[in-house]
Amino acid sequence: MILATVTLWVGNGSWGYHDRKLIKAIKVQYKDGMERFYGNKEGDDNTPHSFKFDTDERVKSMSIWSGDRVDRIRWQTNHNRTFDQGGQDYSCGRGGNH
């Protein structure tokens, strides 16, 4: 299956995660028209972020920040484009309240 568009909804978490942004939902659309959706995009603070793939574009590398929940997703494509959405980037340390 060839990717067409990926949309992430980012918003504040609930309960013990209310102080940080999390990936709340994801929708993956394929070039053949098939779609997959996971999560809950409802909520006043949930913001959609979409990435539309070019015709021959593919994900070259991907990083996912997570603990109990997914905080952030970043990928780079073979066209040298980057998609980077979600909560804080903890590349150089630990996340949460540590």
TrEMBL record:
Pfam families recorded: Jacalin
Domain Jacalin-type lectin residues, every copy: 18-88
Domain of life: Eukaryota
Classification via InterPro entries: Jacalin-like_lectin_dom (IPR001229), Jacalin-like_lectin_dom_sf (IPR036404)
Record-given protein name: Jacalin-type lectin domain-containing protein
Provenance organism: Clonostachys byssicola
